[in-house]
């Protein structure tokens, strides 16, 4: 009777005496040959194939070519053939997305550097300017979280502990770069900052004991040589500006090292919220020092003089440089979620080129041919470094 027959039939992996295609044919099932990656696999006891007979009027039908079945699989490389992948159609869209990230990143960075230099020329308070940049970015993110535009990050104590050294290095690098740009041309600051890979190799070799290939070391020669040539031939050389750019390089190298270590601790946070948290902690660290180095009394007197010289648009310059600073850094951190470190390094090199060229054109920075050659060699060396590092 049909009632005495088991409702589920198991096919054991040990039925080696029966050919699988024959067994499938007798059962009314389609036989699918295993994939090449799992050609040696058998129907294991963990992947049980359940056959459910068709019941017609309470009696098992003898015609079972249309029998239904359920397959439970627990291995990623086993089971039915996967549907056609959507990766190929998505590839052009992904490249377009990365391209948009790069263009946005470069454009925002160029605009920030232009307004930042305008502000520093009229209102030379780099510590206050750096603080306002972080304050504006932190305020924008608090508003985004409060309005639900951006989901707030799910953080824990370990995350904030790991973020502290990153924020400290980020604060030092940010202030040092701003001090540099208050003393020298934007193009010169970024030429010197092109030597950051050299500091990265030396610091990682001395403090972390990392070893690098010969091409990496060779790529440092044009970087150091080009920066040295550009510094020696700079018409408006200033030691404070030069040292500020060098300190910024060292600080950002340590920031990158601490970031790699910090990402292993605490909860994972996306690039958008990660930079927001970084800005907030950097603001907390920087504010007390800014109040001591540049007292508020100097802010007020300096502001009055600056407004008399350039007019009320100074306020909008300050707002623009603060907003664009946050946006360009935010986009750069967001792009890290989408691209490889090599692609990011190449993009960072091209970003520096765009800033150097645009600042020379807009501010009409006087530059000698030998100075331009030094800058080109340094930037080209940075590109070679990004290639050799991989």
Automatic annotation (TrEMBL):
Main location as per UniProt: plastid
Annotated GO CC locations: chloroplast membrane; Golgi apparatus
GO biological process terms, semicolon-separated: transmembrane transport
SUPFAM superfamilies registered for this protein in UniProt: Multidrug resistance efflux transporter EmrE (SSF103481)
Pfam families: TPT
Membrane topology: Multi-pass membrane protein
GO MF term list: antiporter activity; phosphoglycerate transmembrane transporter activity; triose-phosphate transmembrane transporter activity
Subcellular location: Plastid, Chloroplast membrane
TM ranges: 98-115, 127-151, 171-192, 212-233, 239-258, 270-293, 369-386
Signal peptide segment: none
Record's keyword annotation contains Phosphoprotein: no
Keywords: Chloroplast, Membrane, Plastid, Transit peptide, Transmembrane, Transmembrane helix, Transport
InterPro entries named among the record's database cross-references: EmrE-like (IPR037185), Sugar_P_trans_dom (IPR004853), Tpt_PEP_transl (IPR004696), TPT_transporter (IPR050186)
Sequence ranges assigned to domain Sugar phosphate transporter in this UniProt record: 96-386
Protein's name according to its UniProt entry: Sugar phosphate transporter domain-containing protein
Gene source species: Selaginella moellendorffii
């Amino acid at each position: 009777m049909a009632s005495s027959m088991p409702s589920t039939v198991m096919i054991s992996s040990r039925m080696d005496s029966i050919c699988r295609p024959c067994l499938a044919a007798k059962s009314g099932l389609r036989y699918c040959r295993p994939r090449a990656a799992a050609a040696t696999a058998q129907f294991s006891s963990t992947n049980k194939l359940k056959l459910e007979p068709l019941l017609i009027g309470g009696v098992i039908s003898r015609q079972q070519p249309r029998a239904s079945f359920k397959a439970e699989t627990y291995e990623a490389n086993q089971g039915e053939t996967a549907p056609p992948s959507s990766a190929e159609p998505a590839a052009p869209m992904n490249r377009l997305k990365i391209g948009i990230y790069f263009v946005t990143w470069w454009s925002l960075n160029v605009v920030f550097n232009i307004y930042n230099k305008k502000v520093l020329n009229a209102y030379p308070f780099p510590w206050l300017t750096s603080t306002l940049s972080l304050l504006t970015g932190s305020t924008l993110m608090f508003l985004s979280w409060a309005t639900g535009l951006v989901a707030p990050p799910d953080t824990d104590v370990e995350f904030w502990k790991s973020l502290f050294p990153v924020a400290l290095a980020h604060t030092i690098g940010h202030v040092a770069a701003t001090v540099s740009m208050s003393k020298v041309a934007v193009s010169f600051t970024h030429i010197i900052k092109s030597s950051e890979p050299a500091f990265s190799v030396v610091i990682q070799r001395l403090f972390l004991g990392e070893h690098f290939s010969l091409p990496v070391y060779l790529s440092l020669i044009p970087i150091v040589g080009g920066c040295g040539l550009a510094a020696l031939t700079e018409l408006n050389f200033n030691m404070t500006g030069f040292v500020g750019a060098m300190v910024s390089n060292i600080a950002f190298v340590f920031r990158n090292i601490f970031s790699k270590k910090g990402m292993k601790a605490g909860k994972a946070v996306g690039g958008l919220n990660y930079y927001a948290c970084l800005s907030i902690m950097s603001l907390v660290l920087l504010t007390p020092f800014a109040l001591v180095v540049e007292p508020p009394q100097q802010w007020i007197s300096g502001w009055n003089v600056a407004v008399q010289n350039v007019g009320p648009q100074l306020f909008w310059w300050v707002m623009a440089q603060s907003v664009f600073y946050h946006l360009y850094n935010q986009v750069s951190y967001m792009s890290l979620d989408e691209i490889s470190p090599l692609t990011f390094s190449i993009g960072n090199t091209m970003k520096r080129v765009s800033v150097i060229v645009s600042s020379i054109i807009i501010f009409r920075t006087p530059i000698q041919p030998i100075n331009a050659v030094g800058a080109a060699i340094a930037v080209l060396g940075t590109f070679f470094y990004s290639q050799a590092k991989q």
